[in-house]
């Protein structure tokens, strides 16, 4: 007798452990790829947003900077011209440097300092910085935070060619609180770090192409490149070695006749400054940089970058980027990046 074969479907076999592990591995790889792409996208967006902030703030800063410098050249005291032996161009370079320091302080002590080149040539501290500079913060602000605070105050103060810049939420407060419970107002980058202001950035990069606009000037009988646009003829600058600027060795500027011009300039332009030991133990913070004919000296802004550390760039006030800082002067050229 024939036996009918059953047509009932057999039970479906489940996934083996190996198949399950393979599927899990594939899902993990796809997730890692997607997460990595998302992380890189967010990181790039943070950089782009910060560069946009730096570019906007640099524009606001340069509007003030140019206005202050142009006005200073018109307001040179005659008494200073007389102390420069009647050399108005030399007096203009001195007064421009002094006025820019007065209007763009980098520390609270600078903001409270008086620059005095003798009767009729005195720059009193700007009142717009008084509230921030005289406040007590707990804990005390770092030098970088002081520079960031004064940048914000200078940009936003009423009657100071200031503009309240709503730069994508970058205008915030530090965690350091004053007695009224408020933190110091600063601009922050995309990583939440205060943007630092450098009055005269220097360094090998900024002295070269495309940032340098060197003039060929006859210094001591030698044709020399002068990068410093605040002193385009090297009248109050130290000349490159082995050249010596004879005017700096004179005592015509100091009313007391005790200090050389170089020492007197340095004294007044450093008035109120402090030196703080850097990690190397060398006192380098907030010293007025020597006025050198072959050194560019432009204002710039520094973002700490993805590692959230300004490093030696902000401490030394040089523009050679040793880490991942974003520097505003690089963004002045269309298409350029800040790091």
Question: Which percent band covers the strand fraction?
Answer: 5-15%
Uncertain residue segments: 277-285
- Envelope shape: elongated
End-to-end gap: 90 Å
Described by strand count, sense and barrel closure, the largest sheet is: 3 strands, antiparallel
Overall tally of domains: 1
Radius of gyration from the CA trace?
29 Å
The overall pLDDT average reads: 82
Order of helices and strands: HHHHEEHHEEEEEHEHE
What percent of the residues sit in helical stretches (DSSP H or I)? Answer: 25-40%
Query: Largest sheet, order of strands side by side?
Result: 5-8-9
> Can you count the beta strands?
9
Please give the count of helices: 8
Secondary-structure class: alpha+beta
Account of the protein in words:
The protein is of the alpha+beta class and 339 residues long. The protein has one domain. Helices cover 35% and strands 12% of the residues. It has eight helices and nine strands. The protein has helices at 17-74, 78-83, 88-103, 108-111, 130-134, 143-156, 261-269, 311-316; strands at residues 115-116, 122-123, 171-177, 183-187, 196-201, 215-219, 222-226, 298-303, 326-327. Strands 5-8-9 form a three-stranded antiparallel sheet. A two-stranded antiparallel sheet has the order 1-2. Strands 3-4 form a two-stranded antiparallel ribbon. A hairpin with a 2-residue loop joins strand 6 (215-219) and strand 7 (222-226). The longest helix is centred in the N-terminal third of the chain and has 58 residues, at 17-74. Mean pLDDT is 82; it is low at 277-285.
